[in-house]
Every structure is written in C-alpha cells, then in structure tokens.
Amino acid sequence: MKYLKTIIIVMFTIVLTSCSSDDDSNTSESNFIKVGESSFEMKAALVEPSFNSVFLSLTNKTEAEINASVSGTTLNNVDYFTARINHFDLTPGETYDLDDISNLEFIVNGDVINSEFENGFSQFYKSGSNADLEVTSGHITVIDYSVDNITLLLEFERADGVLVSGTYNGSFIYLDDTNN
User: What is the pLDDT of residue 176?
Assistant: First the structure.
C-alpha cells in the first residue's frame, strides 16, 4: 500500500509539472497597440515637449534603430503612433481625452528614409480622408512619468466601431525642443 501511494504521488507530480497551460496569450508582450484583432508591438517611446504642447510617439523600432535612422540609415516596416497633446508636458496620473489631443495617428508598415517617415497604412487618426478610421472617442492615460520610465494606457474607438487599445511601460527618449 505504501508503494502504491508513492507511485501515485510520483505520477501526480509528473503530470502537474509536464502539463502546459492552455492559455495561448502572450503575456510577455506588454508594450503594444491593438487595433481590432491586430496587435502591434511597441519597442520605444519618445516624448518631446515643444512650447505649449508635447509630442508623444511609440514605435516598433528600438532606440538604437531610431538613432541610426537619424544618421541616415533607412528603416523599413516601421509602425508609428504619434499624438500631440495640448499641454506643456505630460503629467503622471493625468488622462488626456480627444479635446486635449490636437493630432493623433497610427501608421503601420512605413519607412524612415533620410530621417523622414514615409508610406505606410493608416490604422486610425483624429481626422483624415477615410471617416471610418477617425477616432470618435477615447483617451491616453499617463500612469507613470519619471526620469527613466513612462507607463501609458491608450483607449480609442474608431468611427467604424473598431476598438483600439494599447499599453506601454518602459524607458523613453526625451527630446527637449523648448530651449530652441
């Protein structure tokens, strides 16, 4: 009987440790923008205060790739989110709705040529040529904004009913244009 208990415990332990989770979600992808069912990984954030507004950008390229593009390297397959927020800088704990955002756009599969973003396919924007892609509601929430980290939450709805969501938590590139 003692031998049977030992075998059962060993078998039970093997079963518990060898089974994989049925959850196929990729929890390691915490920096993303999701448009409907399509998810786009974001690897870098840029914050650029400029007089009475601040530009917030997210991209699927790394900081090293961004720096190389400034030096003339061409980047392909660039996904680029940008928002112009009508405040001097970002504030932790602040939610910026569409009234606070003068420009908003997300373009995928573009190119950076001679430091200029070109081509690509719009996924959504605040105003543009296709009314279905225009966002009708939503906001950007800055959860954390410190010297070395920014945490963002994005939530929008397009005119065609497609939901847009996103998160970013990580370091960022700070470009100070207020002294020029």
Answer: 83
C-alpha to C-alpha distance for 95 and 143, rounded to whole angstroms: 8
Listed residue (60, 179, 41) closest to 111, CA to CA = 60
In a domain, 18, yes or no: no
Taking the C-alpha atoms of residue 107 and residue 136, their distance in angstroms, rounded to an integer, is: 18
* 8 neighbors 134 (Cβ within 8 angstroms): no
- Residue 20 lies inside a defined structural domain of this protein: no
pLDDT tens per residue across span 28-59: 468 999 999 999 999 999 999 998 999 999 99
Which amino acid is it at 136?
Answer: T
| 105 occurs within a structural domain | yes
Per DSSP, 99 falls in state G
On whether residue 141 sits in a domain, the answer given is: yes
pLDDT classification of 115: cutoffs 50, 70, 90? confident
Cα–Cα distance, 137 to 140 (Å, whole number): 11
Question: What is the domain range of residue 80?
Answer: 31-174
In what helix (H) or strand (E) does residue 32 lie, and over which residues does it extend?
strand 32-35
Number of structural domains in the chain: 1
Element spanning 70, H or E:
helix 63-70
CA distances from 23 to 39, 166, 178 (A): 17, 20, 47
